[in-house]
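Severity: low
Component: inverse-folding endpoint
Summary: output formatting inconsistent between runs
Steps to reproduce: submit the following structure tokens with default settings.
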């Protein structure tokens, strides 16, 4: 697993991404931790919940999604199209959980379904940008995914606004639009050196840049 990446990518996954996903909850409801909670308690709560979420979906899902599926999709499609396809897969993969009582994602009505779809697409765009920009770091993809989950559930709990996904969907969508604007939709994908930790896309001669149009040149 690749650890080496520019500091800006670590800043993005550890600070900017959780902030984008969680700040909307504070703006909507204000921070309202349990009465009598100390700073030490909040620190332990936030740290332990971050580690707990890390062992869930992000660690289990990202090796397959970003490590294998994204390089293959980007080999055949425009990077933004690949990210959207993967976002739709992410959304419908979780669809059966909407019928369970145990899942902690808000689903009070059709509006929450739309919010979750928007969030899934934005999440995929942002994580694909991180993955490509860090030259295929699965670690950063996992941390980006975890930062989003952790921010939603922690901020939602601390603000008593966990009953809706809209703040996270809107905040993450803004970050996704920034990624699209900064990279002209290419999400830092470099066809001459595609991020491909699993070696699923062939090197020179059969690699993606042999069949990609010129508008997919490298950008970060």
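Observed output (run 2 of 3):
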């Amino acid at each position: 697993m690749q650890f080496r990446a520019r500091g800006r990518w670590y800043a993005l996954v550890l600070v900017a991404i959780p902030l984008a996903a969680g700040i909307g909850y504070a703006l909507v409801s204000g921070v309202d931790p349990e009465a009598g909670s100390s700073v030490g308690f909040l620190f332990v709560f936030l740290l332990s919940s971050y580690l707990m979420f890390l062992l869930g979906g992000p660690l289990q899902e990202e090796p397959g999604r970003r490590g294998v599926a994204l390089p293959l999709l980007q080999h055949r499609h425009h990077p933004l199209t690949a990210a959207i396809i993967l976002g739709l897969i992410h959304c419908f993969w979780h669809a059966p959980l909407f019928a369970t009582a145990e899942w902690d994602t808000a689903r009070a009505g059709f509006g929450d379904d739309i919010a979750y779809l928007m969030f899934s697409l934005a999440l995929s765009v942002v994580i694909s940008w991180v993955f490509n920009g860090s030259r295929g770091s699965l670690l950063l993809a996992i941390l980006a995914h975890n930062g989003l989950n952790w921010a939603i559930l922690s901020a939602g709990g601390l603000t008593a606004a966990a009953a809706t996904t809209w703040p996270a969907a809107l905040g993450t969508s803004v970050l996704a639009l920034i990624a699209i604007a900064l990279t002209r939709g290419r999400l830092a994908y470099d066809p001459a050196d595609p991020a491909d930790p699993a070696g699923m896309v062939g090197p020179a001669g059969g690699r993606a840049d042999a069949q990609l149009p010129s508008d997919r040149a490298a950008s970060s």
